[in-house]
Amino acid sequence: MTTTDTDLRIEFATETDLETLADDWIALAREQEELGSHIVPDANREAIRDVLAAHQFNDGLLVARIPADETAGFASFSIERGMFTLDSTRGVLSNLYVKPPYRDRGIGTALLKEVEHTLTERGATVVILEAMAANEAARRFYRRHGYDTYRVAMERSLEGEESDSQAETGSGKNDTHSKEDR
């Protein structure tokens, strides 16, 4: 499978792409850190290489290539496999990344379209994805392509603050006793 748009090719990644794509994922994770992600990029290099290898093995890893076979970005995706019966078959877009020098050239759109096409061929009726709340550029990109918010994740830091149970007992210590023991 190859999609050609001028000099851009979108194709399935090969095993020889994995090290480069792991480096690209590290760059993505560093950008996400600035937006509030808790993932530690370099500490997860081996793990993400394994995850990307699994996506590559299952034909769920696309690479955007420009002339001279340089990678400009990638997308990883799969069909959701869960324990619940759903009323739709969900494709999951795990990552979509375009290197900064290649942004605003249609590469992200080309990757997204190929992901959607491939997932549709595999039976998906809907695509789900996550974007950092602070990543307005990504959220705007997905909205432009017809994606709507359907679920919201919320977070609250517990560092440096008393939890409700600590405030209730007046203690900052771990209370392992039940209320009946008091």
TrEMBL record:
Keywords: Acyltransferase, Transferase. The keyword Acyltransferase applies. Residues 8-159 form the N-acetyltransferase domain. The keyword rRNA-binding does not apply. PROSITE patterns: GNAT. Gene3D superfamilies: 3.40.630.30. This is GNAT family N-acetyltransferase. Residues 157-182 are annotated as: Disordered.
